[in-house]
Design brief:
By secondary structure, the chain is α+β, with helices and mostly antiparallel strands. Helix content is 63%, strand content 13%. The protein contains five helices and three strands, in the order ααβααββα. α1 packs antiparallel against α4 and α1 crosses α5.
């Protein structure tokens, strides 16, 4: 599975997207990250493992505290892929619009 596949797989889950949104504001401990979710700490760790496998999040343990932070490179990879698709579709829609304008009142002959 490619890094891009792992990134989209990680972002497919609403809990993980919420974690990414929280980490986009700055680093925090796993306890702080888990606070808004009604789930066990082991479940939070499972989500974090997926985020780390995708490269979206990195963590380090200092003493008894594990701190998580965003890794922007993985998000940039997904952003680049999405932007390329958007550019392709915008060009296609522009061509369709130009084609439709050739016909009065939008009626092809």
């Amino acid at each position: 599975m490619s890094n891009l596949d792992l990134t989209f797989q990680a972002l497919a889950d609403p809990t993980r997207r919420a974690m990414v949104e929280r980490l986009a504001k700055g680093s925090c401990s796993v306890s702080e990250l888990a606070q808004p979710f009604a789930m066990s700490l082991p479940a939070v760790y499972q989500h974090l493992q997926m985020l780390e496998a995708s490269g979206l999040v990195a963590s380090e343990k200092i003493g008894r505290v594990r701190t998580c932070r965003m890794e922007p490179a993985a998000m940039s990879l997904a952003e680049t892929w999405i932007n390329r698709r958007r550019t392709d579709w915008e060009a296609r829609l522009d061509r369709l619009g130009a084609h439709l304008q050739r016909f009065p009142e939008g009626e092809p002959k």
